Q: What sequence folds into this?
């Protein structure tokens, strides 16, 4: 049985924080219906004070349009494929959209994370964001063409899913006390002091509510409004905390050898939290079986992350419930990784 404050929080999240189904009641203003303890700020952003951080929960058109177009462009191996599957299934792209996405994809690969995220994950209008950006003029025109092409494609999805996105935001606000306890304990586990800061969290309509994901890049946190959005928030929150220990994680990965890198180590720990501890039982093994069936190799990122996350789940759970610190966990994580390197992939049962 799990023990301790964090264990109680994990149990509460695993049983009570699934995002509600979209409500049939009329749409309300973006700043409406949030808990009074979460202070409303203008332009669709709600400030949720969680003690060591304030999450600024944003439901804005520009951020959603940018995120969905960015994912459809498939510029990264980590792009969320449900959006590309959606536009393909619905036959939503013509030559104009395809060309705009290709130009954005080239720009994104050149600039990677940073200025684009800080420009377009915003409460500003598209025009205001384009005017205020630090992008070069030619890059501004590339992004202007992207928004011009993709806005008619994406807006119907935003209108259809708007109430659901607001419901997910409210589900997060309703878990304020649990999230506060967990963030405090995660910071203690990671042995970091976090000066109170505002962290933008952008809520995004998803085409697949059962499988919404998230990310934390360029100082921006993104949550797709799936049923597990609160769990995904905890996964990304652990990245937020572990980001303060990157040098230590990188050193531990190098010291472990056998090809372990800092990203895989950090993701393995985060995957152990979610979906390993607070996700649906058996979710990581199911994903690994699906990856094996698809012919994915052991060196592909999501295979690496899930395999290490599965191996680390009991180790991380024991550390969190027993108040063990990250530094004490890292040697066990190295041992688990080295053991994985000796195990066949795909597992024999999955290869038939």
A:
């Amino acid at each position: 049985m799990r023990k301790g404050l964090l264990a109680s929080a994990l149990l509460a999240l695993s049983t009570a924080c699934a995002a509600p189904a979209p409500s049939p009641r009329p749409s309300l203003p973006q700043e409406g219906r949030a808990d009074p303890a979460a202070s409303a700020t203008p332009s669709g952003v709600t400030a949720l004070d969680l003690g060591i951080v304030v999450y600024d929960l944003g439901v804005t058109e520009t951020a959603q349009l940018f995120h969905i177009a960015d994912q459809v462009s498939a510029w990264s191996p980590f792009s969320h494929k449900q959006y590309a599957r959606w536009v393909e299934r619905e036959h939503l792209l013509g030559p104009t959209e395809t060309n705009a996405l290709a130009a954005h994809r080239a720009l994104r690969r050149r600039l990677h994370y940073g200025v684009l995220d800080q420009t377009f994950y915003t409460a500003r209008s598209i025009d205001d964001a384009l005017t205020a950006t630090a992008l070069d003029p030619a890059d501004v025109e590339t992004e202007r063409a992207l928004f011009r092409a993709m806005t008619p494609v994406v807006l119907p999805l935003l209108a259809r899913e708007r109430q659901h996105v607001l419901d997910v935001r409210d589900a997060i606000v309703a878990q304020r006390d649990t999230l506060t306890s967990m963030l405090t304990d995660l910071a203690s586990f990671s042995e970091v002091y976090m000066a109170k800061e505002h962290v933008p969290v952008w809520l995004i309509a998803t085409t697949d509510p059962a499988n919404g994901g998230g990310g934390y890049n360029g100082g921006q946190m993104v949550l797709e409004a799936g049923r597990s959005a609160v769990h995904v928030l905890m996964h990304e929150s652990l990245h937020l905390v572990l980001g303060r220990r990157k040098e230590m994680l990188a050193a531990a990965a190098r010291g472990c050898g056998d090809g372990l890198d800092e990203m895989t180590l950090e993701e393995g720990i985060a995957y152990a939290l979610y979906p390993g501890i607070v996700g649906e039982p058996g979710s990581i093994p199911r994903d690994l079986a699906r990856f094996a069936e698809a012919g994915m190799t052991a060196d592909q990122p999501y295979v690496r992350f899930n395999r290490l996350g599965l191996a680390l789940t009991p180790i991380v759970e024991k550390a969190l419930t027993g108040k063990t610190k990250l530094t004490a966990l890292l040697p066990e994580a190295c041992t688990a990784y080295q053991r994985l390197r000796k195990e066949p992939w795909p597992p024999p049962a999955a290869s038939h």
Summary: Residues 1-5, 14-34 have pLDDT under 50 and may be disordered. Residues 92 and 153 are 7 Å apart (CA to CA).
